[in-house]
Amino acid sequence: MKKNVASIIFLLLLVTQSCTTKKDMLYLQDMDAHSNKNLSFVMTKIQPNDILKIDVSDLNPVVAAPFNLNVGSGSSSVQMMELSGYLVTPEGTITMPILNEISVVGLSPSKIESVIKNRLIDEGYLVNPTVQVRVLNNKFTILGEVRSPGVYPFTEESISLLDAIGMAGDLTYSAIRKDIQLLRETNGKRMVYHIDLTTAAWMSNPDFQIRQNDVIIVVPNKLKVNSGGLIKDPLQVIGVIASLLAIILLISK
């Protein structure tokens, strides 16, 4: 009897451990095949509800001052700058001092800089201005099988998917690495991308760089789904099975 129970324990542990293989778990398994490839980047395109920080400067600060928002003292924090920045309206516009309404939706920050600079010169306000535009509320949302789901801010125009996953503490053991879902709203449309992290092929696609307001969804494997979320780690299954069989073994004595 003991011999039979021990055999059952061994077989169950073997089956449980084989549910997830290295092929399902390891990132970028063909990295060498995709090395030395040229990288391409896509500029951020401004969307409604973005908050912009716009600085206009000139050799004479006095003449440039009217074109800058007076944000007051103590406004160095990101939260204060967001409150005092230019909120892009649902119509895709901002309103600047003196220049009034400017259409910005669908433009990159560098393009907006050119538009504002040209208006300042063409309308005779400044001779040689410098304009800087930045998005203050860059953020992405990551949900599902990561260690710390939530909303994360970033200061760059874009970050990599691996950066985003790293900020969330990496994927859990229950995550399906072959189908990471990326949701993005562009030009009034919602796009859904499916990314396989076990290969490096996706890294050459600029669409898979994380941008403002992206949502990343990491779906759980069948074991996690069937357990109703009770199993956080496949190793728990091994522990539970071992405990139950240990009890059976003691009773069989």
Topology:
Blueprint lengths: L1 H16 L4 H4 L25 E7 L3 H4 L13 H7 L1 E2 L5 E4 L3 E4 L5 H14 L7 E6 L3 E6 L5 E4 L7 H7 L7 E12 L2 E7 L18 E7 L1 H5 L7 H19 L1
Parallel strand pairs: 6-10
Antiparallel strand pairs: 1-2, 1-5, 3-4, 6-7, 8-9, 8-10
Helix pairs in contact: 1-8
Overview of the molecule:
With 253 residues, the chain is of the alpha+beta class. The chain has 2 domains: 21-42 and 138-220, Outer membrane lipoprotein wza fold like (Roll), CATH 3.10.560; 51-135, wza like domain (wza like fold), CATH 3.30.1950.10. It contains 8 helices and 10 strands. The strands form 3 sheets. A 5-stranded mixed sheet has the order 7-6-10-8-9. A 3-stranded antiparallel sheet has the order 2-1-5, sandwiched between helices. A two-stranded antiparallel sheet has the order 3-4. It is elongated and about 95 Å long. The chain starts with a helix and ends with a helix.
Explain briefly what this protein structure is.
The chain is 30% helix and 23% strand. It is an alpha+beta fold and 253 residues long.
Radius of gyration: 27 Å
> Pairing-aware structural class of the strands and helices?
alpha+beta
Report the sheet with the most strands, covering strand number, pairing sense and barrel closure.
Answer: 5 strands, mixed
Order of helices and strands: HHEHHEEEHEEEHEEEHH
Tally of DSSP helical segments: 8
* Global outline: elongated
Report how far the terminal alpha carbons are from each other: 9 Å
In terms of DSSP E residues, the strand content is 15-25%
- Counted beta strands: 10
Can you name the CATH architecture of the largest domain? Roll
Mean pLDDT: 84
Helix proportion? 25-40%
Using the coordinates shown, work out and report the CATH topology of the largest domain: Outer membrane lipoprotein wza fold like
Work out the count of structural domains: 2
| Neighbour order of strands in the largest sheet | 7-6-10-8-9
